[in-house]
């Protein structure tokens, strides 16, 4: 159509996601989103929605992108639970090491911002955080951990995973992050040995 500026929706959503990821929900204005996406305010509202709607779309996009990678990493949990959990953490460590991405994790950052989020956005952030625990629990159950142990390790591993994002943002080195993962994998190894 003549006179209408065309843009790629995926590119705009990725740019908005990176902006929210870098600065957080509260510290991202619509003007920041306009600069990040290259769209004017009215185009953002008409094409991407208001700030809350756009943030929810970005959370979903982030959750799907990394959720698929986590699912692939955990796919061998039934036969190799330790390798699966290690691969799960490797997804996070690779994301952290990617120089093209902001430090930390959009979901962890959103969870920390829950007090300033609208109720709908806060609920969505809680759900995104809970998805990681449920994903881990299912994998650990497939690895034949008892319900109680699978629950405990899922909560622990999800918390460790979020702490990796926080620690990376605070400047922890790759070696320090790997040492954190090693402690969790070693604890899981001991629980699996005790099960046999």
Please describe what this structure looks like.
The protein has about 200 residues and is an all-alpha fold. The mean pLDDT is about 90. The chain has helices at about 10-25, 30-35, 40-50, 50-75, 80-95, 105-110, 120-140, 145-170, 175-195.
Mean pLDDT comes to 92
Ends apart, CA distance between termini:
67 Å
Main β-sheet: number of strands, strand sense, barrel status? none
Shape descriptor: elongated
Indicate the structural class. mainly alpha
Give the ordered list of helices and strands. HHHHHHHHH
Q: What's the β-strand tally? A: 0
Number of helices: 9
Low-confidence runs = none
Helicity, as a percent range = over 70%
Proportion of strand residues: under 5%
**What's the gyration radius in Å?**
19 Å
Task: Present the secondary structure layout.
Layout: H1 9-23, H2 30-37, H3 41-48, H4 51-74, H5 81-97, H6 106-112, H7 119-142, H8 147-169, H9 174-195
Helix pairs in contact: 1-2, 1-4, 4-5, 4-7, 5-8, 5-9, 6-7, 7-8, 8-9
């Amino acid at each position: 159509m003549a006179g209408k500026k065309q843009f790629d929706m995926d590119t705009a959503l990725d740019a908005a996601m990176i902006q929210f990821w870098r600065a957080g929900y509260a510290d991202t204005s619509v003007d920041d989103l306009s600069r990040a996406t290259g769209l004017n305010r009215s185009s953002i509202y008409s094409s991407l929605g208001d700030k809350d709607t756009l943030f929810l779309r970005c959370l979903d996009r982030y959750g799907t992108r990394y959720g698929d990678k986590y699912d692939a990493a955990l796919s061998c949990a039934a036969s190799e639970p330790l390798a699966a959990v290690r691969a799960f953490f490797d997804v996070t460590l690779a994301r952290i090491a990617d120089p093209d991405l902001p430090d930390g994790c959009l979901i962890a950052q959103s969870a920390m911002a829950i007090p300033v989020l609208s109720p709908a956005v806060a609920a969505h952030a809680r759900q995104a955080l809970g998805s990681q625990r449920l994903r881990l629990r299912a994998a650990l159950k497939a690895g034949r951990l008892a319900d109680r142990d699978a629950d405990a390790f899922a909560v622990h591993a999800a918390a460790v995973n979020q702490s990796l994002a926080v620690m990376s943002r605070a400047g922890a080195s790759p070696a320090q992050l790997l040492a954190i993962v090693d402690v969790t994998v070693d604890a899981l190894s001991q629980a699996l040995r005790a099960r046999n």
